Amino acid sequence: MKRRSARQLVRLLADIRHATHCSTLRAAATNRAIALASAESEADAADSDDSPESARDAHQDKPVRSGS
Q1: CA–CA dist 8, 14 (Å, integer)
Q2: How far apart (Å, rounded) are the C-alpha atoms in residues 26 and 18?
Q3: Would you kindly state where each structural domain of the chain is located, as residue ranges?
Q4: What does each of the 68 residues of the chain score in pLDDT, given as a tens digit?
């Protein structure tokens, strides 16, 4: 293995710490995005469960297609 100077080792350590910090931030942002998406889908599901009449009305408003 090649010998490194103290300055190179300090720089390498700083780069490793920075990369670890960035990956931690990325993981936290990903987890937050997943949590927000699941909360949003649960809210959408709750909205559709609360108003079955609006879904039925929307279905009745669709135009009828002919079979030919």
Answers
A1: 10
A2: 12
A3: 7-38
A4: 578 899 999 999 999 999 999 999 999 999 999 999 999 999 888 887 665 555 555 555 555 565 55
Model-level pTM?
A: 0.49
Element containing residue 4 per DSSP (H, E): none
Lookup result for tokens 């293995």: 1
- Would you state the structure tokens that stand for residue 13, as one six-digit string? 């350590």
Q: Are 16 and 8 in contact (CB under 8 A)?
A: no
**Furthest-apart CA atoms within the chain: distance in Å:** 82
Nearest partner of 22 among 34, 30, 12, judged by Cα: 30
